Please model this.
Amino acid sequence: NTTLSFKNVPVSSLNITQATTATAGTLISPSSVQTNISTPTVLSWTFKVEQQILPDTSLTVGYVGSHGYHQILSAALNQPTAVVCPNPSCVAGLAGGTIYFPGIVKANPALANSTSWVSQGISNYHALEVDVRRNLAHGLQIRGNYTWSKNLDNGSAWNTSVSANTPAFVSYPANPRVDYGASAADVRNIATINGTYDLPFGRNHAFASGFKPFADRVVSGWSLSAITSLQSGFPFSPQLGYNPTGNGDTRNPIRPDVNPNFSGKLYPRTVAQWFNPNAFQAPLSTLNPTTSAITGGAVGNVHRDTLVGPGLSNLDVSLLKSTQLTERVRAQFRAEFFNLLNHTNLTTPNETTFAAAPTITTVNGIKTYTPPPVSTTAGVITATATTSRQIQLGLKLLF
Model:
């Protein structure tokens, strides 16, 4: 899975000779798999207690957990050597524990950034599950489920095409535990309530039990079902539109710094600004004073998936009519209403807090480091997570 990247070569003049010579400035961008890769392993355990608490009512309470290790992570391994502050190579003022790249010379300068899969992933999951079921008289059934869970890992996706609300690549391959935090699937609260009611109309029911056969077929056999879903939002990481370290990883997995001077409200929770990007600041980048090119920089100290997006609520309702036409033929009419209340459920917002790199500005002959401005689209929600109200009608013949 090798690609070639051509630098400063006009496409019109590109040919096979140039593609195989150093004069074309080619860099191989390899993909690789850890040579001693381990088998991904998950240990899981479940403990549940079920008890009848009332006639026709049962309660189940359970604990579900798992621990995974040797799971697959994606990393760009061809990176410059980094140091952990305090270190003589660090820039003065960087807090202790900051990961800093003092230069941009890759481990193998003849190669571009790489894509590698390594078995250094870990995960932990813990959940409390509650399930209540009740069968009432006259065809009424109700069931409710609630799950509180905590899902942690140091990587939730293999590549950017499926990473959704979290960076796919680890931010510091030399120590993937730096990214240990909330999983991309860490939805803390999920509740569902569903019920089915056989409407009491027709023969042997409370209402219209004396109708003639034809009228009985019209009024009987109706049932109403509904399910409502409630859940808290998905976590996501505040991200940068550039790499502040210059380490060559173009996927920009590095997160910003916490702004120590921020005192506002972190979650305005509006479509125009779900979270306040001023709560973060750009990590320090070392720049060439002439070109503003990044020649090194720090990894941000914000933990992975620290922000939480909008929650979700939904109500679906179904009306079913079953009619026995003959001994062997039965007709079934169904009317289904998805998102009956037409509730707007929002996706996670734009997570890029700083889109542009810092620059060097010159005023009166004095060069000044200018940090990047906050992105004007940071925190903006541009899409919905579910559709608007949908109505579906169906007719079946069963024989």
Remarks:
- The chain has a mean pLDDT of 89.
- The two ends are 54 Å apart (CA to CA).
- The chain is about 5% helix and 40% strand.
- The longest helix spans residues 213-219.
